[in-house]
Amino acid sequence: MVVRGRLWRLSNPALKENERQDLVTALMNARRAVKQAKGDPSATTVARQSVDAAKVALGERGPVWWDDGAPDYNRKLAKNTPYREWFEMLASSP
Q: Does 31 reside within a domain?
C-alpha cells in the first residue's frame, strides 16, 4: 500500500479471517486507549505498546510474513525503492 509516496506493509494474507478481525478489533481498541491516555505518560506507553503488539501480530510490523526473500521496504519512499517505476506509473494513471 502507498500513502503519500511511502510504502506500507499490509496485513498477512495467511491470517484466518476471524483471527485477522480479532486483531483489528484489538488494534482499534488500543488506538482508542492511546487517545484516552493523553496526559498520562504511563497509560500512553502501555496503550502504544498494545498498538505495536497488534500491528506485529497482523504482520504490519516486525518480522516479514512473506518467504520469497524480497526485502522489506516498509515506510520507505516508493521513489527510492525498486518499485519506483511501478509507483510512477500508478501515480500517472487517471
A: yes
